[in-house]
Amino acid sequence: MIETLDKPVTESKPAPTIKNEKKLKRVLVICSKGKLEDVYAALVLANGALMEGIEAKMFFTFFGLEAITKKKADHLHTATVGNPAFMPGMPTMLGGLPGFEAFASYMMMKEMDKLDMPHVTEFLQMIEAGGGEIYACKLAADMFHLKKDDFLPEVKDIITVGDMYALADGEGTQIIFI
Predict the structure, then answer these.
(1) Per the domain annotation, does 148 fall within a domain?
(2) What total number of domains does the chain contain?
(3) At residue 144, what are phi and psi to the nearest 5 degrees?
(4) What span, in angstroms and rounded, lies between the C-alpha atoms of 160 and 97?
(5) For residue 173, what is the domain's CATH number?
(6) Is residue 40 a part of any domain in this protein?
(7) CB 57 within 8 A of CB 26
(8) Integer Cα distance of 36 and 64 in angstroms
C-alpha cells in the first residue's frame, strides 16, 4: 500500500544567490602528469579560461614536462593500468598486456579526432596565441636533464617554484593542480 502525503516532508527554499564581488581574473594550471587524459584536462581548462576572458598561465612539472617536450608532446599515452575509470569491468591485468596501452591511446585519440580536438602541440599553440603563458619547472627540467631547446617554442621559460607562485600573485587567482 502506497501512502500519499498532503504536503512535502521538507519545504524547499530557493537556493541562495551568492553575490561574488571578487571575479576570477587568473588561473594557474599546474600539470604534473604526462598521461594523455591528464594533459588534455590541463589544456582544456587553460584554453577554456582564455575563452572566458580569464588570464591563463600553465606550469608543467615532473612527468607533465612530457607534454611540452619536442620529442614527446604528440606521443602521449593514456593510463590503462591503475586507472579505475578505464573500461570498468575489465580485469586490470589486461591493461598491462603488451601493446594494449598503445591501442587504448590510439582509440582515445581517434575519438578526440572525431570531436575535432587539437593535438597537444596545436593546443599549446592556441593557448599561446590566445594570450596564455606556458612554463616548465626548473627543478623537474634539471632532474630530467632538459634544456630550453628540448621544449616546444611555446614554452616561455623554465622557472622555479617561487617564480611560479609569483605568477599566481594577486587578487582573483585560482590555482588548479592536475
Answers:
(1) yes
(2) 1
(3) -95, 10
(4) 39
(5) 3.40.1260.10
(6) yes
(7) yes
(8) 10
